Every structure is written in C-alpha cells, then in structure tokens.
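Continuing from yesterday's entry. The apo prediction looked reasonable, so today I'm repeating it with flavin mononucleotide included to see how the binding region is handled. Same sequence as before; SMILES copied from the compound registry.
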Amino acid sequence: MTDSVSDLLKAHRTHRNFTDQPVTDETLATIITAAQHAPTSQYLQAYSLIEVTDPTIRQALAKITTRATVATQGRLLVVLADQHRNAKLAATPVAKRALTELDRFMGSVEDATLMTEAMVMVTESLGLGSVVLGSINNDTQAVIDYLHLPALTLPVFGFQLGYPATEPETKPRLGLPALLFKNQYVEPERYQTELTRFDQRLHTYYQQRGGNARDEHLANMTREALGTAAKRRDFLTIARRQGFLPEIED
Ligand SMILES: Cc1cc2nc3c(=O)[nH]c(=O)nc-3n(C[C@H](O)[C@H](O)[C@H](O)COP(=O)(O)O)c2cc1C
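Holo prediction written out below.
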C-alpha cells in the first residue's frame, strides 16, 4: 500500500506471474466499478468487458498472447471497444452510422484504454498486480469468434490480474526534457542530453535488475521493437467486418 496516487503511479510495474490466491468476485467488482470512473468521451462509456473463465478459451488466449500463464493464473478479462450498446440505445440510422466512423471508433478505443489504465491502478492500490495484453490482437478474428463479439465491438486488451507471485522492479521512464515541450514542438536544449542520460539509466537498470539481467540500450530496444514486419495488417479489414470504419464517399 502507498500513501498517494503519485507514489502509486511511480511504483507501477507490470506483473505476469500470479499465486493461487483467488481474486474474489467482490474484489474484481471493486476494481471495475472504480475504474469506470475514468473519463469517457462524450460520456458514451463505449467499452465493455468479458471475463474469460472457460479453460479452452483461456488456453487459446494464452497461445495468441504467447503467455502460458494467461491460461491458468489469476483472472482474465478482455476489454472491448464497444459502440454496440450505444447503437442500440440511439437506435436511429444517423446515430448508428456515426458510431461506425473513425472518431467514434477512436473514442471507444480511448475509453477502453483509459478504463484499463484505471483498472491497473486500482488493482495495484489493493496489493494485486496485472498485465495489459495488447497481444490478444495477434489474432483478432480468433478472439472475436471465441467471444462471439457482435457488430461494433472489437477487442482492445486482455487484462490479467491476481496476487503477484514475483515482484518485478519498476522500469525507469524518460525525463521531462525528452517529452515536455512549450507552445510548439521544439526540442529543448536538454533534449539530447536527456536521451543520453536516460540511456545510461536504462542500461544500468537492465544490468542490475534481479531477473533476466542484460546489456540494453534505448536505440537498440526501439529498433528491436520495430524491427519485425508490421503486425496486425489485417486489423482494418477485421474492424470493417465488425461494422467500423466504412469507406467514405463524399
Ligand atoms: C498497450 C499495451 C500493450 C501491452 N501488451 C503487452 C502484452 O501483450 N504482453 C505483455 O507481457 N505485456 C504487455 N504490455 C506491458 C508492457 O510490456 C509494459 O507496460 C512495459 O514493458 C513497461 O513495463 P512496466 O509496465 O512494468 O513499467 C502492454 C502494455 C501496454 C500499455
């Protein structure tokens, strides 16, 4: 437990291994209902959650996310961008059409994202840990099929939570000169100095950390993250199949 929201945020680290201690329904509900108070675009609350308890589906999601523990440990939610509910509520052709378009599509992904980060924080405030799993979109269509997702919904993240079995160290973050600009996107004098400083800090972190110590540099890590061919090239096609992002003729 930590004293303040900023201490909690600064102590954040992703957890990927969880003990057998069950997360009760009450705890899960506490986390979700608190996280629902995240800001939401146009007050549309354009997300929903599916808890996955079926062992076959969890196994499939473990394979898709390439994380074996997803099959068995903790509780597992899939966070959806969801304009399906709003289409039902609004129920006019104009509103339904609006909900398919890019800005509302982005609104639902933004809502789902902010809500997920809020779940991360509430989870940690209660002494639990979590991992956000963007990798469920390694096979978006399979997730849609397993979860029977209706039109105007799409998976955004997996969210696995539980009582931490290990305590990873917090990873350092960039200092402000690398990301805080004034009035215009003009890199401040200390921009390059900060990148060099952060690179050293990152290098030390990776060399000194408890598990999986290694020789890392910022530019290499960035290159490695981007070195493979673009992933999820089918995402637009699948989003369109789900009713989002129609071709616009005007
Ligand atoms: C959008 C998003 C997607 C992510 N997807 C995955 C994932 O698929 N698998 C995973 O193990 N971690 C995933 N993570 C966690 C990141 O790897 C982690 O946040 C990052 O390495 C920084 O570490 P920290 O959270 O411990 O500070 C994801 C995080 C975000 C924000």
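Comparison notes:
- The longest helix spans residues 102-125.
- The first strand starts at residue 47 and ends at 51.
Will overlay with the apo model tomorrow.
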